[in-house]
Amino acid sequence: MHPWIADRTTTFDSSGIRKVFDLAAKLKDPVNLSIGQPDFDVPDSIKEAAIEAIRDGKNAYSPTQGIAELREAIRQEVAAKYSHEDRDVFVSSGTSGGLMLAMLSMVNPGDEVIFLDPFFVMYPALVRMCGGVPVPVDSYPDFDLDVEKIAAAITPRTKMILLNSPANPTGVTASEAELKAVAALAADKKIALLSDEIYSRFFYDGDFVSPASFNDQTIVIDGFSKSHAMTGWRVGYVHGPSEIVRTMLKIQQYSFVCAPQPAQWGALRAMEVSLRGHMDDYRRKRDFIVESLSDCYEIARPGGAFYVFPKAPGDSGAAFVERAIGQGLLIIPGNIFSSRDTHFRISFAASDDQLRRGVEILRSLAGASV
């Protein structure tokens, strides 16, 4: 290793998802069910708002906390949901930026952070960057949020419980009772509760519920990347107790500085855009994938996001993914998101044609009739 490289960078590897993306570039006309971003484009009205901001000269730094108009719109939306006396908001440089700021603001070296396994690939890496200790809690086979398992993982070093519902990579949504129980546990133990809600608008069965409804100290991270197909615009937002928000802003000032100003004006317009048609479409895609594969794969039915996390036939999810790639199908091995190598992730954020072709290949690989 080069002598200048910091030790902290050796505690995690590059994302395995990027390796699949590299493979995609080498394949001719692959069936790509690997990408975790919407398959529709940014709505035109959002584009126009950003273009108008650029033409109007709104191209400089914004305030670190975000433009006042967007912050106020988010604040009003949050206030309508929660009656917390102490809840502030700010605009982050994407939800990934928000996650990093949250970790840097709250996690000391040696502090433990609990989250479910399977997990979003960034979670353990971010914890380790802060010198913290990732504590994944096994949630197989149904990927439920089990408060007893969470409670059993708590030690005197536990600083944070990190929730993600709807979840990446499983698409599973925690129930209101599960979220209420974990929220109460965190409050009782005086543990920080961080809720990653980037898929909050991708909720297909019932209504979305946040643990912030039951614990007024919950720090919530959300954004526009997934819901409005704005993954490259890097506009997220955070709301939580004011002292935590002030600390996160202090770090943002010396790191990301601010989210891109023209993109913030686009996000302001995005708050007026109805997503009902897209969500109905994704519910239909979810149903198609689950119904088409449930007879030949073990699948926990996803209630949100745009992922399915089936169990792979055989002993290795990674080996199965290699076979799939050999047939021109790009999916993600489950061991990227987990300590287990038993599953694989499908993204159904794809065209109907891609989904039909993907189903044919997966059924063929499982030895089922097409």
From TrEMBL:
Residues 29-360 form the Aminotransferase class I/classII large domain. Its EC number is 2.6.1.-. GO terms for biological process: amino acid metabolic process. GO terms for molecular function: pyridoxal phosphate binding; transaminase activity. InterPro entries: Aminotransferase_I/II_large, AspAT/PAT-like, NHTrfase_class1_PyrdxlP-BS, PyrdxlP-dep_Trfase, PyrdxlP-dep_Trfase_major. It comes from the Bacteria. Belongs to the class-I pyridoxal-phosphate-dependent aminotransferase family. This is Aminotransferase. It comes from Novipirellula artificiosorum.
